[in-house]
Prior knowledge:
Number of strands: 0
Oligomer: single chain
Strand content: under 5%
Largest sheet: none
Mean pLDDT: 81
Shape: rod-shaped
Helix content: over 70%
Amino acid sequence: MMAKFKAEYGQRFGKVKEALKRYPGQPQSSQGGGDSDKGPDNRGADDPVTNSAYMKQSSALEIQKRDRTIKKLASDLKKEREECKKKDGALQKYEAFYREVKARSAEKARQRQLQEKQAEQAKRRQQQLQRQRP
């Protein structure tokens, strides 16, 4: 789930980055020019929006916030997985115990039926012996 989140986050961040590059009034990346004042992202040095301290700070803060969110989600996921493992272990123990109890109950019921059958047979024998003795 974390890998899916990271992939989706990367994809969305890439889309936002591309949209910012195509911001109206900004030089397109397809425009070639020999301007030495353009940075690696093909924007002019006189671009007040991208070069503002606010944008730089907000971008850094947003990235830090997302990184904290990712770390928190990763730790939460790890905790949930550990809890699930514990619960699965407890459930397996319970199921094994239940099967054992069920098997014991079935064995006791079988023994009880056998004893009842033997008692009934013994009773019949006694009745037959009493009938033969006048």
